[in-house]
Amino acid sequence: MTGLAFLILFVAVLAGYALNRMAASQIRAGGGKLHSLTGFHGLYSALVVGVPGLIVILLWLAFQGPVIDRSILAGLPEDKLSGLDSGAVSLVLAEIKSIARGQVFGTPEDWKLAAAQTMAERTASARLALVVVIAVLCIALIAFSRSRVSAEFRARHGVERIVLGLMIFCSTIAIFTTLGIVLSLVFESIKFFRMVPVSEFLFGLRWEPQIAIRADQVAGQGAFGVIPVVLGSVVIMIIALIVAVPTGLFSAIYLNEFASPRARNIIKPLLEILAGVPTIVYGFFAILVVAPFLRSAGASSGLDVSPNTALAAGICMAIMLIPFISSFTDDALSAVPRSLSDGSLALGATRGETMMKVLFPAAIPGIVGGILLAVSRAIGETMIVVMAAGIIAKLTINPLDSVTTVTVQIVTLLIGDTEFDNPKTLAAFALGSLLFVITLGINILALRVVRKYRELYD
Amino acid sequence: MSDITNTPASPARAFDWKAPDYQDRIRRRRRSELWLRSAGLVSITLALGFLALMLAALTVTGYKAFTQTHVRLDVPIPAELVDANDIAGSNWRRVMQGAISAEFPDLEGRTLRDITAMLSDGAQYRVRDTVIADPSLIGKSVAVTVPMSDPFDQLAKGLVDRATPEANRRVSDAQIAAFDKLAAEGRISRPFNTALFTNADSRFPELAGLKGAFVGTFYLLLVCFGIALPVGIGAAIYLEEFAPKTRLSDLIEVNINNLAAVPSVVFGLLALSVFLNWFGLMRGSPLVGGMTLALMSLPTIIIATRAALKAVPPSIREAALGIGASRQQVVFHHVLPLAMPGIMTGTIIAMAQAIGETAPLLLIGMNAFMTSAPATPFESATTLPTQIYIWADSPERGFVSRTSAAILVLLAILVLMNGLAIWLRRKFERRW
Questions:
Q1: Span A223-453 CATH architecture
Q2: How do residues B288-335 score in pLDDT, each as one tens digit?
Q3: Which of A312, A392, B28, B372 is the most exposed place for a label (fewest CB within 10 A)?
Q4: Which chain B residue shows the shortest CA-CA distance from A415?
C-alpha cells in the first residue's frame, strides 16, 4: 500500500508535468507570448505536486506507527496495564504487534488477541487512508497548477523559488542533525541523572553498570562513577600519541624536506591507504597479531600481560593516527612560504637546520592543531578499542593491564536489548554526552589554536 | 662612509677550515643532519611496515578461507529411510550416517558418529536436494561432493598439529585415520570456496558466507547515496552560490565543520533515540543504517561539492549571466555539469568511508545473526563490517580465517572504489 502511494505520487508528478507543458505549448501555438519556457510550466506543476505529496507521505509514515500504538494502548482494558512500568508496557505492545503480524507464540490472552485484531484493522485502514489522501491531494494540486498556466504566468520564478527553498532545507539538515544529537543526548542524560546523581557520575571511582534488569537476576549493585572509564580512554590515547606523534612528525619532515619527488609520490599515497583502512580492521589486527605478540613477549620476560591490554589497543590506534598527523604536519610545513627556507639555505644552513630552526617553528600552530584533532579522534575512536581493549573498568594506568574506554562502554551497554527506562541503557547516553562535549571542546580549541597563532605571510 | 674608505683594503681573512674546532663543528652539523634524516626514514619504514605487516597477517590467515575442503561420497538412498511421498521430511542424518558406515563398515556406535561428524551439517541438505530433483534415485546411490566440517577443513589445510596429544586436539586419532584413508583414495578435494560468496551467515564456519552482508551493504549504500548526494549537492549549491553572508549561513558552516569531527558512535546514539525509539523504524534495517551514515557522510560531500563548484572559473558564470540566464539556470545548466566529476569523486570517497563504518551500526542492531540475505532495505540485516565483527567474536577456529578473508574482500572493495574515484578525477578533471 505504501508502495502504491509512492507510485500514485510519481504518476501524478509526470502527469502534472505533461499537462502543464502541453497547455503552455497550446498557448504558444495559439499565438500567445509566454513569459516562461514551456518546460518551466511543466516543472512548476511537477514541483507543486511532488514536494507536498512527498512531505505528506513521509510524515504519515513517521507518525502512523506511534499513533496507532497509542490508540491501542489507550483502548486496552483498564486493569491490564495498571502497575506496569514502561518496559513491561512496551513488551505487551511488542507481543500485540507480533500477533497482528500473524506470528502467534503460545496461547495469548483474549484481550491481546482482540487488541491485535484492532491493530491489524487500524493499520490496514491507515494505509488505505494514506492512498486515498495522496490521490485526492495529487488531483487537487494538479488542478491548481493547471489553472495557473497562462501567457503571463511566471513559471520560472515559481520553480526557482521552490528550488531555492529545497536547497535551503538541505543546508539546514546539518543544523537539525546537530540539534538532534544534542537534544537526544540531553534528554536521555537527564533521565539518567534523575536515577544517578551527577556528582556520583562525574567523580565516582567505581564503574559497575551490570545491574539486574529483572528482579530475579543475580548482578552487582551498580555503580556509575565515570573516572575509571575516562582514565582508560586517556591511557590508551596517551599510548597512541606517544607512538604516533614522533612517527608522524618525522615522516612528514622527511617527506617535506629530504625525500625526492619520486619517493614522495610513492610514499604519500601509501600512507593515505593506511588512513583509509576501516578501523575494525585495526581492531582485528590487534587481536590477531599485536595482543598475542605482547603476551608472548611479556611471558618471555616474566611480565604479567593481560589478554586485552591498553598497549595493544594504543599501538593499533597509533597506526591509524600516523597518517593523520603526518598529513596535517605536511600541510602545515608546506604552508610556510618558500622564501623563508630559501633565505635560511642561502645563509648556509643545512636542510636539517632549515627544517628545525625555521620551517618547524613557523608551522607549530598548524601541527599543534593537528595533534589536538588526533587527540579528539583517539578519544572518539570506537571499533579498535571495542575489539582490543577490555570491558571491566579498572582504576589503573598500567599499559599492560586491561582497561576500558568511554566508547567501549557505550557500545557494550547498548548492544543487545535496549530498554529506555533503566540506568544501564541511559548511562550510555550520559557517556555519549560526555564524549560529545569533550571532543567538541578539543575541536574548538584546535581551531582556535590554528586561527590565533597562524602567522600570516601574504 | 668614512670608516669604510679609511680602512685599508684588508686581505681576505685567511679562514682556516681545517682548524680542529671548525672540523668538529662541521662534523657535528652533518651528524645532526644525518640523525634527522634517518629518524624520518625510520618513521616512514615503521608506518609502512605496519601496513605491510597487517596485510601480510590478513593474507596469511585469510587466504585459506578462499578454499573449502570437500569429500566425494557415494550415498546410498535406502527406500526404508527415504519416503518418496515426503522426501524433505525424511531422516537425512541417518542417510548420511549410512553412507559413512558403508565407507567404514567396521565402525559402529560412538566412533561412527565421530566419523560422520566430518561431514558438514549442510551435506545432508545437498543430498536431499539432489534426491528431490530426481526422486528416481531412491533405492540407488548418489555420488555427491559435499563440504567437510570445520575441524576436518582445518586438518586438511594443515592447521591441526598431529603431534599434539589426542586430548588437546579437536580431531581424534580415529577421525584422522578415516580422513587419511579418504585422502589416500583421492576423494578429498579443495575447490574454490564459492559458499563464501553465495551463502548467508551460519553457525558452522564451513557454511558461513558473505551474501547477507553483501546485500545488506548494498541496500545501506543505496539509501545512504540516495539521501546524502541530493541533500549534499543542494546544501553545497546554496552555501556556495546563493547564501547571503548572514548569521544563518555562518551557523550552517560551523555546524557542518563540527559534524565532520563528531565521533561516529555519537551518530549511533542519535539514530538509536531518534530513528528507532521515536520514529519506530525497523531495528537493524539497512534503511536506518543508511540514514545514519548519510548524516555522517553529508559534511564530506558538502565540502567536496563546494570545492568542485569553487573550481569552476567565474568567467563561465559571467558568460551565462551575460546572455540572459537566471542565476539558477547558470548553476544548473553550466556550473553544476562542469563540477560533476569533482562531486562524484568526493561522493565515492565518502561512500568508501561509509562502507567501513561499524560503530553506529552496532548501536542500531545491525550485528544480529541472520541466516538469510535481506529481501528489502526494511528488514534486519548485516553489513560487511558488522559481519566481520560477528565473525571476529565467534569462538570457532574456522571463523578466524573467514574473518581475515572477509576483511580482504572489504579492502578489495575499498581499493576498487578509491581506484574508481582516482580514475574519474584523472579522466574528467579540467584545469582552467
A1: Orthogonal Bundle (1.10)
A2: 999 999 999 999 999 999 999 999 999 999 999 999 999 999 999 999
A3: B28
A4: B363
